Amino acid sequence: MNIPPGHRRPAGISTVDQIDRFDDIIDTRSPAEFALDHLPGAINCPALDNAQRSEIGTLYKQVSPFVARRRGAALVAINIGRHLLEHFQHKGPDWRPLIYCWRGGKRSGAFVTVFRQIGWDAHQLEGGYKAWRREVLARLAALPSRFDLRVISGPTGSAKSRVLEQLALLGEQVLDLEDLAAHKGSVLGRQPGLEQPSQKLFESRLLQALGDLDPARPVFAEAESRRIGQLTVPEPLMARLRAAPCIRIDAPIEARTDYLLRDYDYMTCDAEGLIGRLERLVELRGRDTVAAWTALARQQRWPELVRALLEQHYDPHYHRSQSNNYLGHADAPTVATERLDKAAIKSLAERIAMLGRHSG
Hints:
The mean pLDDT is 93. The protein has two domains: 13-137, Rhodanese-like domain (Oxidized Rhodanese, domain 1, 3-Layer(aba) Sandwich), CATH 3.40.250.10; 147-358, Rossmann fold. It has helices spanning 31-36, 50-62, 65-87, 106-118, 128-142, 160-169, 177-181, 199-211, 235-243, 253-263, 271-278, 282-285, 287-298, 302-325, 342-358, and strands spanning 13-14, 24-27, 43-44, 97-100, 123-125, 148-153, 173-175, 218-222, 227-228, 231-232, 246-250, 334-336. The protein contains 15 helices and twelve strands. It has a five-stranded parallel β-sheet with strand order 1-5-4-2-3. A five-stranded parallel β-sheet has the order 7-8-6-11-12, with helices on both faces. By secondary structure, the protein is an alpha/beta fold.
C-alpha cells in the first residue's frame, strides 16, 4: 500500500523506519521464503506452508483465481488459529506485533485483521518484505562511508580471524565478514556443518552488524576478496575497505603452517573431500601441481601439503591481490610474530588495537 504525500496512513499500517516500535515481528511468508531472508528478529508464522503455497499457486493457474482464493482463505484461517493457540496465548492486551508478508498484501492482512479483532494493536508492514529489501540495499549503499575502518592484512594462515576475535574480547569494534558469511573465504574455506546464508540474508545480517557499530570509534575488519565462498561483499563496503588504512601481520611460513593445521584440522579427517576441493584449482595451478598436492593428501603428509599450498598458491595470490586491491597495504605498519599460538594471537591483537587507535 503506497500512501500519497500529505495523506495519513490507515490505522494498523506502519513503515520500515518504525520497526523498532514493536514487541515482535511476525513473518507470515512460507518457511522457504523465510529461510532465504527475513527481517532481523522476525519469527516465522506462515499463513501457508511450503506445500500449501505451491498448491494454491497451482489452483490459481490451472483452475481459477476464485477457487484458489476460496481454498487459500480456508487454509490461512486454519493456520492463523493454530499460531494463536501455539504461540500467542500468553500475550497480554498491550502486545504490539508488526506483521508482514511478501508485499504487504493478503497474507499479513489476514493476520492483522484477526489480531486487531482480538484487541491487539497489530500493524501491517507497508510494502512487506519488498520494502525491507529496498531499505537494506539503500542503507548498505550509504552506511559504509560513515565508518573509520582499519583493515588487517597478512598472508593466508596469519590468524587474522582469530585476531579479530581477540580484538572483540578487548572491547574493540570488529566487522567479521567471514563469520557473517559462514565461510573462511578461500576455496578450502567451507566449514563442516555450516551452510552459507543466501546473498539476501547475508546482506541483512551485514546491515544489522553495521547498525550496531559506533561511527566515532575505529572498526577492525579483515582484508577480504570480493567473494566469500558463494557470497559477494556489497560494492560500497568493498570500496571502503580497499581504501582504508591497513595493519599487516608478518609471520613466518612455519608458524602459519602450524596454525592452519590447527584451524583446518577438520580437513585432515576427510582427505577425499579435500582432494575434491583441490581439483577446483587445476585451471589456476595446472594439473601436475594439483596432482602433487593430491598425492600428499592421500599420503596424509599434512604439514608438507599445507606448506606447498601456501608457497605455490596462497602466497603468490596474496602478494598480487593485496598490492593491487588495498591502497594502504604497501605502506602499512607491520606487527611481526614468530608464533601463532593463543598467547601470540592475543599479543598481536593488543598491538593492533594500539596501532588502530593512532592510525588513519
